[in-house]
Amino acid sequence: MPLSETLAHLAGLYAASEDPWNHRSSPYEAAKYEATLAAIGPGPFENALEIGCGNGELARRLAPRCRRLTAIECIPAAANAARHSLAEFVQAKVLQGSAPASLPEMQPDLVLLSEVLYFMTPQEIALLGQWLNKHAAGLIVAVNWTGPTDEPLKGAEAVGLLEQALVTKRTDCFSGFRIDVLAPVGRACD
């Protein structure tokens, strides 16, 4: 599916529901969030970035570990839902835009990519890897669905493309998803 069709499809899903994948009620999502937060660690993180935050459910759970959290989302309705989810956290902000083109000038000590990479093109993933090597100052955590997607890339393929630009510290496999902990080249021992 071409990127414009993917974005239109996602926009349609969020137009129909603020929570199209049941992030707030699904046992699968709850288990994935728990595993993701365990992989990230307790923090505190000075300047965290979540790329593709959807409706903000994971960002809401991440925010207490962050002194500053920037979440970015390309679908306007999802970005608005994320702003609502994060309203109580003064240290959190939600930007509308796409990665890597709209990423803010920052040096995050945590970057979270939860089920977003396979919506990107290989070229966007390569550019994201370059951005991460230039800007990231700490952990990069990529969470990917391991089942079939309706996208050109599968989760493992998408994270494999990102791994070409970064250093893999570890990969943990779970039922239905995997978590890859990565680091920028030159910061792998931090």
Features:
Rossmann fold, alpha/beta, globular, 6 helices
Mean pLDDT figure: 89
**Total strand segments:** 7
Distance between the termini: 38 Å
Approximate strand percentage:
15-25%
Shape: globular
The CATH topology corresponds to Rossmann fold
Radius of gyration: 15 Å
CATH architecture identity: 3-Layer(aba) Sandwich
Class by alpha and beta content: alpha/beta
Q: What does this protein look like?
A:
- This is SAM-dependent methyltransferase.
- Keywords: Methyltransferase, Transferase.
- It comes from Paracoccus angustae.
- By secondary structure, this protein is α/β, with parallel strands linked by helices.
- The chain has a single domain (3-183), classed as Vaccinia Virus protein VP39 (Rossmann fold, 3-Layer(aba) Sandwich), CATH 3.40.50.
- Helices cover 35% and strands 21% of the residues.
- The chain is built from 6 helices and 7 strands, in the order ααβαβαββαβαββ.
- The protein has a 7-stranded mixed sheet with strand order 3-2-1-4-5-7-6, with helices on both faces.
- Helix 4 links the parallel strand 2 (69-73) and strand 3.
- The protein starts with a helix and ends in a 7-residue tail after the last strand.
Quick structural gist:
The chain is of the alpha/beta class and 190 residues long. Helices cover 35% and strands 21% of the residues.
What's the structural blueprint in terms of helices and strands?
Blueprint: H1 3-16, H2 27-40, E1 48-51, H3 57-62, E2 69-73, H4 76-85, E3 92-96, E4 110-114, H5 122-135, E5 139-145, H6 155-163, E6 167-173, E7 177-183
Parallel strand pairs: 1-2, 1-4, 2-3, 4-5
Antiparallel strand pairs: 5-7, 6-7
Helix pairs in contact: 5-6
